[in-house]
Write a structure and sequence with these properties.
This protein is an all-alpha fold and 232 residues long. The protein contains eleven helices and no strands.
Length: 232
């Protein structure tokens, strides 16, 4: 039976939801309002710094890239070296963009003039749009080009082990932060399969915690259908 595991699409859906939300807030923010701008940039860094060390300002996008490079790319490179090399180069470019946005955000808060903040906010929004566009294209490439290659070369069990290596290194707060983005981003079939697999492999307290998160985060109508399909 062909492999069906997909190590990328579910978490990419979470990242896309995060990107869409941050993009909407950036383009509607009044950068002349210092207090509102500080709240936005604090939330931006909080989103970007989920479960990383307090001294690190790289975003969760960058951490996701590191997870891929540590657990997935090394075995995949044995079968798709040129593609993996290209994806890593894209990771490096995205990291440079992320750092630039974080630095620009801090610089905006140091500006005393509302007009200057508005001008800097326009540039920040443009840089963020360029980052988000590049990251969306990058994720699409991984799904369109790497997922099929991995299904050809690895079994579901092997790919599940790669995912397990990532999950074992996630602190609980980061895991649930990511799930908070991912669970509402999945369609009914994807979420039903995720929970069915979780019930077979995870301890009951973790399953209950994930279901509680779904109660709070997933659209009620979709969640009702998922519970029926997954037998919850």
């Amino acid at each position: 039976m062909p492999a069906r595991e997909d190590l990328f699409t579910p978490v990419h859906k979470a990242l896309r939801t995060m990107i869409y939300g941050l993009s909407a807030r950036l383009q509607t923010n009044d950068f002349a309002d210092l207090d509102g701008t500080e709240r936005l940039l604090t939330d931006l860094e909080n989103d970007f710094a989920v479960a990383r060390t307090s001294s690190c300002i790289l975003c969760v996008l960058s951490q996701h890239a590191l997870d891929e490079e540590r657990a997935i790319f090394p075995p995949a490179a044995k079968h798709a070296n040129a593609l993996i090399t290209r994806l890593i180069e894209e990771h490096h470019d995205l990291t440079r963009r992320e750092l630039g946005i974080a630095e620009a955000g801090h610089a905006i808060l140091d500006l005393a003039s509302p007009a200057a903040r508005v001008e800097a906010g326009i540039r920040l929004n443009q840089a963020a749009n360029e980052l988000f566009g590049a990251y969306l294209t990058h994720m699409n490439r991984e799904e369109a080009e790497l997922v099929p290659r991995m299904r050809e070369q690895f079994t579901d069990a092997q790919m599940a082990a790669m995912r397990g290596a990532i999950l074992r290194n996630l602190p609980p707060d980061r895991l649930f932060a990511i799930l908070g983005w991912m669970l509402p981003s999945l369609n009914v079939t994807e979420l039903s399969e995720f929970l069915s697999g979780l019930r077979q492999s995870a301890p009951p307290p973790l399953v209950q915690a994930v279901c509680t998160l779904c109660d709070a985060q997933v659209d009620p109508g979709r969640w009702s259908e998922v519970k029926l399909r997954a037998g919850i």
